[in-house]
Structures are given as structure tokens and as C-alpha cells.
Amino acid sequence: MTAMTRVLALTRYGRRGASSRIRFMQFQPHLARAGIDSTVSAFLSDRYLERLYANGRRDWREVIRAYARRLKALRSTAGYDLVWIDKELLPWLPFAVEQHFFPRGVRTILDMDDAIFVRYMEHRSAFVRRFLSGKFARLLQLPAHVIAGSAFLCDYARSQGARQVHYVPSVVDLEKYPAPGARTPGGPLVIGWIGSPSTQHYLHGIRDCLARVGRAGGVKLLAIGARGLHELPLEVELRSWSEETEAADLRDCDIGIMPLADSNWERGKCGYKLVQYMACGLPVVATAIGANNSIVRHGVEGYLARTDVEWFEHLGALLQDRELRLRMGKAGRARVESEYSLQSVLPRIIALIRD
Fold first, then answer.
1. Which of 211, 215, 262, 305 has the maximum number of C-beta atoms within 10 A of its C-beta?
2. Has residue 181 been placed in a domain?
3. Same domain, 9 and 157
4. What is the end-to-end Cα distance of the chain in Å, rounded?
5. Residue 184 belongs to a domain
6. Of 88, 99, 40, 36, nearest to 355 (Cα)?
């Protein structure tokens, strides 16, 4: 009988944090069935994120508890076969500290789904730039393997001397996103967006497009996980996010959108919103940057936009043509099933853990 493989996942967040939930936690029950026992130790608690999203303020007492919790977890790594690190061990601390506490005598994987190094390198504080801008360049040389969720992140890891780099996109579990049926016509057409208060500012980047769409009438924006947005120039429906209802809420939409700014931070994003929309059979419109260019084939699953004019043209085309929406939505669902589903990447994850 094959011995059970034990994995300690040192995640950035609990289930409330999309990156930790999607990049590791959703795999846990499937790994268990494959004989891989995993334990999650989150750095920041769900309570921290809930308070941050509710009032925009950081709970510094919870941050202090987070560092204490992480140091305690690091003392237990010897009891595991593999340590899975979400981004970094000790955020906002310099490389020398990270190196001192980095697990030894156990295999390690570092998982990247954001360009954290950009946050340090381009920070407004000269102090942060001085002590942290070079952290990831050295950190990426420590683990045996690096997993990255986009080509941009893979290229960066390789350029910094990471030993083995693997591309693994952010994916959905098809058991939670069953094949959708066509929406019943009637009522306003619904443009869907899902995210958090920390990312809803991207919607303001297409404000003029939304205003033109809104003036035409018969359209509303369904924003899942946002707050406020009363200043947007069209009808807006807000829904609270929950893991249990997100897929069902997205099925109430006709189109999914992912506007982004054009900067290095956005180039490191992994396009998970698009994967969710496409899993729900929605055609998409997304800013043509980073992983979006890989996930969306322009004119097949949706459209990629670079300017306000392109955003309006592409949204307008989808809003006016139901058959086009259905055709692109069907193509998007097929793409997710083959390339962006948990079921399609799970064998690679299991093989990597057992390597």
C-alpha cells in the first residue's frame, strides 16, 4: 500500500481569499482521494478580509496574530513531505528574514498568481523599495519548484533563476460549475462583474462605455462582491459574494466583463474572472493585457478591447445579438472544460506533488 503523502500549505488567506482558495484549497478533497493529505495554515484570517472589505481598514492586531501564526506553522514543517508556499512566507519582511525561516530538509513549491514583486518594486515608499524590491529575485531561487498562473509570471520566475517553473492556470471545479442552460429571454440584459471592493475601481476605467450602454436602455450591471458603485452611469445591482452562490449569480448574467488598467501589476493577473464567466457559458469582454490575451481568443469566446471605442463596440455587438452571445458562450464553456478546469489540471498537480 502506497504511503500517504503529507502536504503543508502555507496560504496567504483563508477561504475568503480567492487566490488561496482557488490555487490550493479547492484541490484538497481531490488530493485526499489520490492519497495526498493536506493541511492548510493561512497567514491572514477570513475575519481580517471581511473587516477590510467592509470598512477599508486593516486590523493591525490581526496582522500581528498572523505573523505569530505563521512562525508557529514554520516550526512544524519537518513533519511533512512537501511545503506549498502561497506567494511568500512572511509578507513585507525582507529576504534575509524569509531565508532564515525558509523550510529546510523538506521539498518546497512556491505558487504565484500575482506580481507581488511589482508591488514591492514600484511602491511609493522609498524605504519599501530599498529593502523589498529585490526580495522575489532571490526568493524564487529557494524552492525546488515554482508554479505560476500566467506566462508573465513564469517568464519572471525563469529570469530570476528559479530551478523548475510550471505553468498552472487558475481553474474552476466543474462540479461546482455544471454545464449551464440558455437564459430565458426577458427583462434587461445583464452585464456581469465579480470581484471585491479592492478591485471594483477597474469598473471606473470603462465608465464612458458603461454610460453609453446605459443610455441605450434595457441593460444593467450586476456587480458581485462590490460595494457602493452608485456613481456609475447605469442601473447597478449589487450582490454580496459567497462561495456557495457565486456560480448561480453569474448564471443570471448575459455577458461577463473584466476591465483592467495597463500596468505591470495587471500583467501578472491570472484572469480567473474570465474563467468563471466562461464556465457559466457567458461571452466575455476583457482588457487585452496579460493572461486575458491567452484565455480569450478574440472573436471566439468573446472580445479583447484596448480602447474605450473597442469596449463600446464589442459590448454593443454582444448586447444586440443573442445568437452571438450563445455561440461565444458555448465556445467559452468548452475551452474551460479542456484547459481551465480543476479536472483538466488535477493530474498535473498530483504528479508534481509526487515528483
1. 305
2. no
3. yes
4. 18
5. no
6. 36
User: How many residues does the structure list for the chain?
Assistant: 355
The three grid cell numbers given for residue 76, joined into one nine-digit string: 512544524
How confident is the model at residue 1, as a pLDDT? 42
Give the CATH number, domain containing residue 17. Answer: 3.40.50.2000
Residue 117, domain member (yes or no): yes
Say which amino acid occupies 203. Answer: L
The answer to pTM > 0.85 is: yes
Write phi, then psi, for 107 (nearest 5 degrees): -70, 150
Kindly tell me the burial class for residue 323, based on how many C-beta atoms sit within 10 Å of its own C-beta (0-12, 13-18, 19 or more). Answer: exposed
Residue 54 included in any domain: yes
* Same domain, yes or no: 44 and 142: yes
pLDDT at 2: 58
| Amino acid in position 168 | V
State whether 12 and 152 are in the same domain. Answer: yes
> HSE-up of 236 (CA within 13 Å, CB side)?
21
Only one residue has cell 452585464, namely 191
Same domain, 9 and 112: yes
Per the structure, how many domains does the chain have? 2
149 and 221 together in one domain: no
Q: What is the pLDDT of residues 132-181, one digit of tens each?
A: 999 999 999 999 999 999 999 999 999 999 999 999 999 999 999 998 87
- Rounded Cα gap, residues 185 and 194, in angstroms: 22
Question: What is the distance between the alpha carbons of residues 296 and 278, in angstroms, rounded to a whole number?
Answer: 9
How far apart, in whole angstroms, are the C-alpha atoms of residue 231 and residue 340?
34
* Element holding 146 (H helix, E strand): strand 145-148
| Residue 204 shares a structural domain with residue 332 | yes
Dist. CA 40–CA 80, nearest whole Å: 12
Residue 116 C-alpha from the chain's centroid: 13
162 and 304 part of one domain: no
What is the rounded distance in angstroms from the CA atom of residue 94 to the CA atom of residue 176?
39
- Together in a domain, 60 and 111: yes
Summarize pLDDT for 279-323 with one digit per residue, the tens.
999 999 999 999 999 999 999 999 999 999 999 999 999 999 999
Residue 294 domain boundaries: 189-339
Residues 6+ apart with CB under 8 A from 173: 26, 341, 342, 343
